[in-house]
Amino acid sequence: DSFSEEAKAKVLEYYDNRGLLYDEEATLEQAYRHYNLDKMEFHTYLLEQFISPAASNENIMTFLTSVTLPLENGKVGHEIRLGEIFDKNTGEHISGYDIFNCEAGKAVDIIIDAAFSEAAVHYSKSINADVRLKEELKAAMKPEYIILWNENFEVAFPAGTLETFDHCFIIGLDYTDEIKAIMHDWAIPDTAW
């Protein structure tokens, strides 16, 4: 359940070209400023990025990139979660929108609507009435926010992406018949990592 040497080289090249998703020097300068302002109240800053396999099938392998960034005071960080999908035979990167067998806008509508329907079932107060949030999620959606796991997938909106939330907002959906109907068969993982 892994890549050929050729495909592995292509995946490594993708990550090398993308590089770090944070500015290390700017964060060090920010921490140093905070330290000099108040040494007694200084908190260590957490800054990290890691990439881990998420799921696979005979055609694809998916990864999660997680970036933890400190806030201004260094006390609490926030995480950015991004998904990557690769063709196991060629190592080519596959856009999160290419996993759908319909136009991306239609897929996004179905995903967001399904998330609100599922939330209405699980919570006593239905968020289904929040039309503004629904439209905001649909407008903010990007293919890299889609993370495929073997039993479900998530859409992770980073902090600052939505006006409605200061923190990240994550939607988790099972591979229901409704979701499978908009996905290519080759895009549904069956193995966890």
Explain how this protein is built.
The chain has 5 helices and 8 strands, in the order ααββββααβββαβ. The chain has helices spanning about 5-20, 25-35, 105-120, 130-140, 175-180, and strands at about 50-55, 60-70, 75-85, 95, 145-150, 150-155, 170-175, 190. The strands form 2 sheets. It has a 5-stranded antiparallel sheet. It has a 3-stranded antiparallel sheet with strand order 5-6-7, covered by helices on one side. A hairpin with a 3-residue loop joins strand 5 and strand 6. The longest helix has 19 residues, at about 105-120. Mean pLDDT is about 90; it is low at about 120-125.
Q: Main beta sheet: strand number and arrangement? A: 5 strands, antiparallel
Average pLDDT: 89
Assembly of the depicted chains = single chain
Q: What overall geometry do the principal axes of the alpha carbons give?
A: flat
The percentage of residues in β strands lies in 25-35%
N→C terminal distance: 10 Å
Q: How much helix is in the residues? A: 25-40%
Radius of gyration: 19 Å
- Identify low-pLDDT runs: 120-126
Counted by DSSP, the helix tally is 5
- N-to-C series of helices and strands: HHEEEEHHEEEHE
